[in-house]
Amino acid sequence: MFSRRDILKIGLASGAYGALGPGPRRRVFADNLPSSPRTTPFVVALPIAPIAQPTAAFATRADPGDCVNVDGSTAFHVHGPRVVPTNSQFFLIHEQARPHSFHPQLPANVIWGYNGMAPGPTFIARSGTPFLVRFVNDLPQNDPVGIGEPISAIHRHGGFQAEEDDGYPIDTFCTGQSRDYFYPNEPADGLVQNEESTLWYHDHAIDITGPNVYRGLAGFYLSFDAVDSIAGELDTNPQALRLPGRMVSLPSGEQFREFDVPIVIQDKLFDRNGFLVFDTFDHNGFLGDKFVLNGAIQPFFRVARRKYRFRFLNGSNARFYQLFLSNGQPFVAIATDDSLLEHPVTVKSFEIGPAERVEVVIDFTNTTLGQEIFLVNRLQQTDGRKPDGLVSPGTQLLKFIVDRDAADPSRVPDTLRPVTVGPQQLLPQVRVKRTFEFERSDGAWVINGEFFDENRIDAKPKRGTPEIWTLKSGGGWAHPVHVHLTDFFILSRNDSTPPVLERGRKDTVAIGGPDFGDVKILLPFPANFRAVPRPVTGRFVFHCHNIEHEDMRMMGQFDVQP
Amino acid sequence: MTPVATRLAGLLALVAAGCSGRPPEPPPTPPNVVATIREQQLPNIELVTHEGRRVRFYDDLVKGRVVAINFMFATCRNACPESTQHLVEVQHALGDRMGRDVTFLSISLDAERDTPEVLRGYAEAHGAGPGWYFLTGKHDDIELLRHKLGAYELDPVIDADRTQHTGLVILGNEPAGRWKAITALGKPVRIRQAIERTILPVTEWPTGAAVVNEVPYEENERGKEVVTADEVAKLLVRDP
Ligand SMILES: [Cu+2]
Fold first, then answer.
1. Position with higher pLDDT, A215 vs B209
2. Does B71 map to a domain?
3. Does the beta carbon of A437 lie under 8 angstroms from any beta carbon of chain B?
4. B6 in any annotated domain
């Protein structure tokens, strides 16, 4: 029961780990993609994105002024004058092209990043304090690299936000334009169980999300509340969970979060000169052969002998990972996707598909100074269809170097986030079930036989009324399916009780192939926003998060009914 | 590690890499995306048009143009009729921009039977106008082109079934190095909009309401069922 996959058959990782690539990644015919040049692993420190800094309040603009078409028409979702609560904080984020070093042995690559960084600045939000974020598109119009288009919609993945703030894929804005996004930073329906944890924000523009995210448009958005607090391990509130993590002020005055480390894992491909490669002719799911953590290839991270919270995000376009520690030490999982678990779960490894998050505590207390421990991916994947299976020894992604002692006031309580409204309470209210079949059809992907159409509604759930969805996949393809607006409970996988790490709330779930199979989920569909009171209504998308599939229109939309 | 320390470490590593004692090499220059795609994805194979003209794929059909490419064959009865019908509608919607702003290339996967004469009949039957070429050539050349353009299946058994490759439109703005694909089986308006996005500079792309509402609103709750109390009760029992 360690993971979705039976790891016992293969045996635990042991012995020496080579810096093996992920194996062949070749098309039958058009095998013109290069292998990336060699890079020496573990020579760069794991970069940590800076915390997004609020700016002075500014007057919000109605979007017609920002996203006007040449013919005078406007964005699909147009919000009028903004009613922003007085305690809101304001942010200004510029999408920019900037040189970026993935590795000192490769030349600088011009990436597209939020504030020019990949990953973008990390938002640190506190439940009850809304954010108004203006994203400004400063991306170049005639970009010589040829990866991505300078048109944007921003989705706060896993977040509870209104339809016009959700990054609806057609609400795009171009170079020189901006769009304001209001993030209420409130739990869905005001339920404490729905307090958010690790979210991320990324580009969601129609048809070109894959190259835009690959080029760098992704960042973390961490949400805290009274018990999973920003004060973290130093919180004196007796109710506080005191999970590892605290804020520290640097001499520069800059705030920094210590012992609580977000890590986004992405795979990238480089040509023989070290320049980023993307294949816009491949629609199966793009795979790279270099593993990039927070923007650096195979970095190292110095740790103290104490507990750390790591928030892993799979920010890859199409690759699944299964992560182990080289010393056989377990992970204590505390959250999946946007939500803390009810109780921590100890696992030897965990699998993580595109867009999924898994938060774990790793306890380095019983290590020795100077010890080196590797984070290892043992899941092989050679094309966009699905992962092939576990291999040994796998690929080392990150080296932990134990180099000091540090006090550890943190703990991992037995109860993290109790669920008060779960399947027992929701199921008796269910009146509607839906089946969505994710299939390949004529060179692209469909849901129930249909490609995404901008003006077709595929489901009309009612606000505040739970539904059961059965997600199926044909043809042996794996699809990480993401539903906007509402997180969900997994009722069953292949008609069986879901594995331990899938018994909490999720916003993305892998389906299909022999490993993932069919999945039945229970979606609560929230009823009300509270920071700015209004009912939850309108259009939201659900889609495959293998972004190449998504861009080939494996997407549907639901219109929440009043 | 603090962010400052992290950046410092990165900087030091960079410095170390730059001081390894080897003579300095000129820094590599980023690839030219247009040239890379031309060399790697656009084989300059020989083809024959439905008018019997011998042409080269890159030199005569793609270079300097915006193209919409699909694979088809005259006797195909799966997705082809619908794909072709959609492209016919797009051709009409594009009006005089056909041949001027965009060129359609329909490439036969049945080189043996689809002679230029057969393709001319097919083009005439569907009312294909100026700027739309139906093309045939050597089987192996066209197979190479099909794979290069991404119209292939990973499963070799499915890949061998040529009816599987007729549902895509590959869109390219060759001089800009911008290529993507869209399904030919979506609504023709969506194909036209995608073609316009390939032609136009990005600041002129229609967004939002203009895109959504060009097709009439539609609802299709396929897959919806009413759930019975019995079924819910069973799920409740199974709930761990
Ligand atoms: Cu998919």
1. A215
2. yes
3. yes
4. no
Q: Which of A427, A453, A459 sits opposite B215 (nearest CB)?
A: A453
The predicted pLDDT at position A334 comes to 98
Chain A residues in contact with B181 (beta carbon < 8 A): 281, 283, 443-444, 552
Residue B200, min C-alpha distance to chain A (Å) = 11
- Specify the CATH number for the domain of residue B182: 3.40.30.10
Structure tokens at A95: 């999408």
Q: Classify residue B87 by its DSSP letter.
A: H
Whether the predicted pLDDT of A188 surpasses 90:
yes
Per-residue pLDDT tens for A108-144? 999 999 999 999 999 999 999 999 999 999 999 888 8
Contact list in B for residue A124 (CB cut-off 8 A) is none
Out of A367-376, A401-410, B199-208, pick the least confident: B199-208
Q: What's the whole-number mean pLDDT along residues A4-18?
A: 33
- Based on DSSP, count helices (H) and strands (E) in chain A, helices before strands: 4, 38
Between CA A449 and CA A440 the distance in angstroms is 9
Q: How far apart are CA B67 and CA B37, in angstroms?
A: 14
What ipTM was reported for this prediction?
Answer: 0.89
pTM: 0.92
Closest-approach residue (CA) in chain B for A47? B6
DSSP structure string for A392-453: EEEEEEEEEEEEE---------S-SS--SSSHHHHGGG--EEEEEEEEEETTEEEETTB---
Test B212 with A76 for CB contact under 8 angstroms: yes
Show the domains of chain A with their CATH numbers: 4-28+41-236 (2.60.40.420), 261-405 (2.60.40.420), 423-560 (2.60.40.420)
List the single residue in A with minimal CA-CA distance to B171.
A281
Strand partners, A13: none
B120's enclosing H/E stretch is helix B116-125
Average pLDDT, chain A: 91
Task: Tell me how far the alpha carbon of residue A479 lies from the centroid of ligand 1, in angstroms.
Answer: 4
Which member of A69, A173, A443 has the closest CB to residue B164?
A: A443
CA of B69 to the centre of ligand 1 (A): 24
Condensed to tens digits (0 to 9), the pLDDT of residues B206-232 reads: 888 888 999 999 999 999 999 988 888
Whether the per-residue pLDDT at B1 is higher than 70: the answer is no
The closest CB to that of A141, out of B2, B78, B201, belongs to: B201
pLDDT digits (tens, 9 = 90+) for B63-94: 999 999 999 999 998 788 999 999 999 999 99
Ligand 1 centroid from CA A477, angstroms: 7
Task: Give CA–CA dist B221/B219, Å, rounded.
Answer: 6
Share of chain A above pLDDT 90, in %: 84
- A492 CA from centroid of ligand 1 (Å): 20
Q: CB within 8 A of B220, min separation 6: which ones?
A: A450, A456, A457, A458
8 Å CB contact of B185 and A173:
no
Cα distances (Å, whole numbers) of residue A67 to A176, A235, B210: 10, 44, 11
Instruction: Please tell me the total count of domains within chain B.
Output: 1
Give the Cα separation of B225 and A72 in Å (integer). Answer: 42
How far, in whole angstroms, is CA A341 from its chain's centroid? Answer: 17
Q: Is residue B198 part of a domain?
A: yes
**Chains A & B: contacts with CB separation below 8 Å:** 278
Q: Between chains, do B148 and A48 touch, taking CB under 8 Å as contact?
A: no
**B17 occurs within a structural domain:** no
Which of A45, A174, A468 is the closest to B227 by Cβ? A468
Q: Do B232 and A432 touch (CB under 8 A)?
A: no
